[in-house]
Design a protein that fits this description.
single chain; mainly alpha; 5 helices
Amino acid sequence: MKQLRIRVLFGLFGAAGVLSWAGARLWDTFGTLPRVPVAAPIVLGAIAAVLAATALSLRARLKAQREREPGAKGVDPLVAARAVVFGQASALVAALVAGMYGGTFVFLLMDDLDVGTRRDQAIYAGLSVVAGIAVVVAALFLERVCKLPEDDDHDKAAGAAV
């Protein structure tokens, strides 16, 4: 399984942000901008919490397994692989969503924030960006926790052979 690249996540974030900003400008000229849901930062924060809790749980179980503690509950490799896939998918989607809300946030900042609804929408969009970044960080942490020690040796050997 390939490791997530930070450049890909930044690229998705930037592309989604630019497209969202341009779309918000276009949409605003034709009427009202769609609302940023209040639940967006809450849902993203919940996903980040689930990813972080999974990573911490797996890290504790893997540590106990490595130290051969009596009664330690091992980690099934398939469970770890599923957790990594969940984390990678969450990071990719969160980068897109955070970019989308980031573009909307920038548009709203450049627009008149004296209107109460626009100010609220800017706050919700900004919180969504922060929560999306938290999802990406938690997913990268989960991926790092589930990385096998042999992966480092294999990557170094492959790099030396090239």
